[in-house]
Amino acid sequence: MPRSIQFNVRPTPFSTIALKKSWFQQRNMYALLKPLLFSFSPEKAHHYTVNLLRFAASNPLGRALLRSWYGTASVSKPVEVMGLRFPNAVGLAAGFDKDGKYIDAMALLGFGFVEVGTVTPLPQDGNPQPRLFRLPADKALINRMGFNNEGLDALAQRLKALRQRGPVPGGMMIGGNIGKNKITPNEDAYLDYLRCFDALYPWVDYFVVNVSSPNTPNLRALQDKAPLMQLLHLLQESNRKQQVPKPILLKIAPDLTVEQLDDIAEIVQETGIAGLIATNTTINRAGLSTPEAAVTEIGAGGLSGAPVRARSTEVIRYLRQKMGPNPVIIGVGGIDSPEAAREKMEAGANLVQVYSGMVYEGPGLIKRICSRI
User: Fold this and answer.
1) What confidence tier does 22 reach under pLDDT thresholds 50, 70, 90?
2) Is 74 a catalytic residue?
3) Does the N-terminal or the C-terminal CB of the chain have fewer CB atoms within 10 Å?
4) How many separate domains does the chain show?
């Protein structure tokens, strides 16, 4: 039995779970759990994990454990961007907590901000299962979830209850990632985005306009200059009517051409939005270590994780040079280490987000990044 576990230690509150050098803390608990989780389908593993986290966050013992193992308070460096004060620069990307159910748990894991959604006005089931796949050889995921969520009303009520309870734990910021329903034609998409904006405005700190997911038919057509300009102008018009306008960011795909990136930079300037999230998942499959036959069998979907790292960094660097220092860029794509996070920030990102990296590296990744950027 390791020395740090002693039965003759005088008890103190939570002494058995909060010892700084306990047997549990000296080892990566996720490394022990990962083989079990990876024995389930990715979507089932996700549900098991988040429900376990929510249970842990619901009781004093679990909260103490999570805070002791993963809390970032001692290593966080607050960041002020978009008129908001983020406890640290590391956020959870959209898609992990689509319905705002796990915000308390994410705060205990040490995130500086969490992006809920993508939410759509009406509930929708998303695409048929299976729709989430691991590529362990590439430390990557492929998903074709299709904006599955419980709908705008459910999310708004959940966020309202959270806000009315008091300050968000740890001062964590909450972003609202908004989209359109699959059944909504592109010419009416602006109505879905405006509806989401109005309903979530009182409860989120910033907004993200998602027109870059590859898993809703024809959604990426909204990235074309004319429809995108119209959509963002309408959202900004609604935003300016509020007593305190909130930052609006645009999430873009990594698959845009240089000409399209130039258009994006121009759109940011002309609409006056706060900035960009770069980037979403890619439809590119080049350079994967996973056998081509296995990738082909998986089929369509957005690829995330380590294979997107270089391209997303390239997009960030290009846009930072193109747009200058003022628009905010949140970097996401292949961040699975402090080095990957620093790479994004050196390219011009103000903040970073993780998702796939946490699937492969575990929740300790957040604290490791915070301690080294």
Assistant:
1) very low
2) no
3) N
4) 1
